[in-house]
Amino acid sequence: MQVKRSRERIIVDIPIVVTTVLDSLEGTIVDLSEGGAQIVGCSLPARSQCQIDLDGYTVFGTVQWSEEDRMGIRFPYLLSDGPLYERLKMARGPRHAPPPARPRPQMAAPVMGGFGRRMV
Hints:
By secondary structure, this protein is mostly beta strands.
């Protein structure tokens, strides 16, 4: 059964450290979105609270599912800044970049003495 996701997952290869109250584990994020990540190379029990550390920046998460050597993490808040978000933007590339701003249309010069105007 395929689950419809609200955010597009992007394939990445980002080495990280997963930290819990009792342990620190090395792993690699293999797919990422603003709402979560799949990590291979380590696992924690489902519903565990953890943090993902990258370049001195921490993202908190909850393990949603876990297998022997991989797990899915959900972030409580959508990624919007920091090195993990920057890696996500770079991995998406130009096809997901916002379109360039279009110039605003120029307003025509006001007509003096038209409807609702007092003529001097």
